[in-house]
Specification:
three-stranded parallel β-sheet
């Protein structure tokens, strides 16, 4: 998880209902909604006015930055719109997709949200941003649901207008801890930030559930250009037990690659040590960019939210890519961002279909979700259903409804399944000692 620490929410979720959303605008949100921005990409078309023949949504993600980039998410959103429109739209309505580049910047993220409000989008679907504190005020003020965010921030699991499709970093770390319970000593290398402070309790909740002692918590600068010292320390820490192979878990986000370069050089002087990380820090695009089978992630254990890309349950998504985005190298079917966008649009399609010939607006979309609509995703997730307070509200994640993870391993440069089926981390997270 990234960004500033969020205090535990003190709102009573039932107070912010679909009937009140339109009228609840803070002064800051009112100013935000009145502003206009430049720099967002737009697919020409009409806005999503209630009762019209076109439904307008937005997808945003960072592109062309020096940090995290997710160009496949807006690119896939465009492909999905072309595909669904070629099939007659959703309930006969054309799908119009606006996209926005959040530039990995809080100001740009806020501008994307203000644009969404200005364009009267009915939902923000399948998006990535680390700056929820910047974009949620405008979305909440305009009553726009946020469906299928990447799970990069705490706010995605607390905002009453957020409808996450995965368990974000909480589920990934808890699941990874459970998977590493058979390791010897475990070292976690994470950012020396307030956000980084939240990571050890989540990993340790999984380790403790498997009868393992807590990890060795190693703080590191999040913007370092090398991590030689941290790599040496991690190897010393995890090589002390000759009987059990130790495990090193870097959770440095975009700096994971920098750490792994240092780690690969340092490990030559130490016994073999396993590496493991979470999909929020590494996915197939990162593995490819760092050398694939010859790169530093070969053999690493990684927890993910969904089945591996070779699973036939992804055939529907691959059909969209084949028919509408063949040759677009921005769209990798193994990219967790692209996969999340597919699932998010699958959810949105079922919501609109549930409305039949009725009005499709931000209010009616949120109303359908809040009224307990059950959404299926072809086995890629459990059946999804959002309530104001779910099982994990007690530990600060009231909107987290899918705590399933998969365990994967990098073999010959590709992410493949290391264990069949999903692991439900709900009970592990319920016992996590997370402080807000």
């Amino acid at each position: 998880m990234t960004g500033r620490r969020r205090t535990r929410s003190t709102f009573l979720p039932g107070l912010l209902t679909r009937h009140a959303r339109k009228g609840v605008l803070s002064a800051g949100t009112a100013v935000a909604c009145a502003s206009f921005l430049a720099g967002c990409g737009v697919v020409p078309g009409t806005t999503g006015d209630a009762g019209g023949g076109t439904i307008t949504v937005m997808t945003w993600a960072p592109q062309s930055t020096k940090a995290t980039n997710k160009p496949g998410m807006p690119a896939f959103a465009h492909a999905y719109a072309r595909w669904i429109n070629a099939k007659g739209g959703i309930n006969g309505r054309k799908l119009n997709v606006l996209t926005c580049n959040d530039h990995n910047d809080s100001v740009a993220a806020a501008k994307c949200a203000r644009r969404a409000a200005k364009e009267n989008v009915v939902a923000v679907v399948g998006s990535y941003s680390q700056y929820a504190d910047s974009f949620f005020p405008s979305l909440e003020g305009a009553g726009i649901p946020y469906i299928g965010g990447y799970g990069a921030t705490n706010a995605e699991f607390t905002s009453p207008l957020s409808y996450p499709v995965n368990g974000g970093q909480p589920a990934l770390l808890a699941g990874l801890g459970s998977a590493l319970a058979e390791c010897g000593p475990v070292a976690l290398i994470r950012p020396d930030t307030i956000a980084g402070d939240q990571l050890p309790p989540l990993l340790d909740s999984g380790l403790k559930a498997g009868g393992h002692r807590a990890s060795n918590d190693q703080r590191a600068a999040e913007d370092a250009t090398e991590y030689d010292g941290q790599a040496e320390r991690a190897l010393r820490t995890t090589s002390t037990d000759g009987a059990d192979q130790g495990c090193v878990v870097p959770a440095l986000g975009d700096r994971n690659g920098t750490f792994m370069d240092s780690f690969r050089r340092a490990r030559e002087d130490y016994p073999e040590v396993r590496t493991a990380t979470v999909l929020g820090s590494v996915d197939q695009t990162v593995i490819d960019a760092t050398g694939g089978a010859s790169g530093p992630y070969e053999g690493s254990y990684i927890t993910g939210w969904y089945p591996v890309a070779s699973d036939p349950r992804w055939d529907g998504m691959k059909q969209v890519i084949r028919e509408q985005a063949f040759g677009d190298n921005r769209i990798d079917p193994a990219d967790a961002g692209v996969q999340t966008t597919w699932i998010a649009y699958t959810v949105f399609r079922q919501v609109v279909e549930s409305l039949g010939d009725g009005e499709v607006s931000a209010d009616t979309v949120a109303e359908a979700l809040d009224d307990g609509l059950k959404v299926t995703t072809g086995g890629l997730t459990p059946t999804l259903r959002w309530q104001f307070q779910d099982k994990l509200a007690a530990v600060g994640f009231p909107r987290l409804v899918n705590a399933n993870v998969t365990l994967q391993v990098v073999r010959e440069g590709r992410l493949v399944s290391a264990r069949k089926g999903f692991v439900d981390t709900t009970r592990t997270l319920e016992n996590a000692d997370v402080n807000y």
